[in-house]
Design a protein that fits this description.
Elements: E1 6-14, H1 21-35, E2 39-45, H2 52-62, E3 67-72, H3 78-88, E4 91-96, H4 108-116, E5 121-126, H5 133-150, E6 162-165, H6 166-173, H7 182-189, E7 193-198, H8 212-226, H9 229-259, H10 266-299, E8 306-310, E9 333-337, E10 340-344
Helix pairs in contact: 5-8, 6-7, 9-10
């Protein structure tokens, strides 16, 4: 497998998707066979706690020359799983998609055709979304706000069915940051991007792994990772609020000198004080987001840890965890940590 040329690599992160995987396998196989190009599929098991890994290995046993499974030793998140797939991919073009079948694999040939036509990044946006109304409205608001802040001009930040030329994948692999958003990063590097509409289906098995909190965190990563506008906005807001606050202080001082002390307006002052405290807390929170990201970067911890890569001929016992057999008397074994080779005794 290491010497064969691959035209298209498909990277699919998997996290607790045992209910969706059988249907994905049934639909994915004929699509790849119909491409008429050399292909590989990289499934990245992102610390699944169900039978997803067993399903992936069984599928690999049926397609040993085209399917590889990258197994994390924990849950590192969707984007880290895609980055691991990028590092292990060998194709001229790399396609990413989710395992939940909300974006049909039958759209893959369209992305490959556009990549072969010369586009280095092919983005997608979902039409006729089969999501709850709240999620669709929130997504539209986030897309609009994010585009204004970052200036990237992506129509749908949440759709992971996308295509990348090898040059873009190599640029992304060279970025060492621990918190990123892959579609936005690729758009930064793109010279000739394209964007097409794709179908969207209702999830027919399993549950979404993106709750409200994770969606908020993801959008914080996106906005703070690609723009300083939030930090500049709170600075400007502080300046705008400080001017009327200063004028109000002068007015209250003049009233005290001219009319003497009075108890009127106490609750108004409390309301103004609470308003200013709220703005202060918001400003500190946004500044803290940037400081927290700086803290994550300077620690230089690995972005992800790969436990095992299942590839080659199937059968026999699964490969051991790379550091299981290491003892002080033996040569330290190499293990893949965050895409770099590290030594463990």
């Amino acid at each position: 497998m290491t010497s064969a040329h691959v035209r298209v690599s498909l990277v699919i992160p998997v996290y607790n998707e045992e209910e969706s995987l059988p249907a994905l396998f049934r639909r994915l196989t004929p699509v790849l066979e119909g491409l008429g190009r050399s292909c590989e599929v990289l499934f990245v098991n992102d610390g699944s706690r169900d039978r997803s890994l067993a399903f992936l290995l069984a599928y690999r046993d049926r397609h040993p020359t085209t399917v590889r499974v990258v197994d994390f030793n924990g849950n590192f998140g969707q984007h880290m799983a895609i980055l691991a797939g990028f590092e292990k991919s060998r194709g001229d073009f790399v396609i990413t998609m989710d395992a939940d079948l909300q974006n049909p694999p039958e759209e893959i040939p369209r992305l490959v055709a556009l990549l072969e036509a010369g586009h280095d990044v092919v983005g997608t946006y979902r039409v006729d979304r089969q999501d709850p109304l709240f999620r669709k409205v929130a997504s539209r608001m986030v897309n609009g706000i994010t585009n204004r802040i970052t200036g990237l001009g992506l129509r749908d930040y949440g759709c992971m069915l996308r295509g990348y030329a090898r040059r873009i994948v190599d640029y992304i692999n060279s970025c060492p940051e621990t918190t990123t958003f892959i579609p936005a990063l690729a758009k930064k590097f793109a010279v000739n991007p394209a964007e097409i509409p794709v179908d969207h289906a209702e999830r027919n098995a399993g549950t979404s792994k993106y709750g409200l909190y994770r969606l908020i965190r993801l959008n914080f990563d996106l906005m703070t990772g690609f723009s300083l506008v939030p930090l500049q906005a709170v600075t400007l807001l502080g300046m705008l609020v400080s001017i009327p606050s200063f004028l109000l202080m002068l007015l209250l001082l003049a009233r005290r000198l001219l009319l003497g002390p009075e108890a009127e307006g106490v609750f108004t002052l409390l309301a103004i004080n609470f308003f200013l405290m709220g703005i202060t807390m918001l400003s500190v929170g946004i500044a803290g987001e940037y400081v927290g990201r700086i803290y994550q970067e300077v620690r230089r911890r690995p972005r992800f840890v790969i436990r095992t890569v299942y590839e080659g001929e199937p059968g026999g016992t699964p490969p051991p965890v790379p550091w299981q057999d290491a003892t002080p008397e033996k040569e330290p074994l190499a293990c893949m940590v965050g895409g770099e080779e590290a030594r463990r005794d």
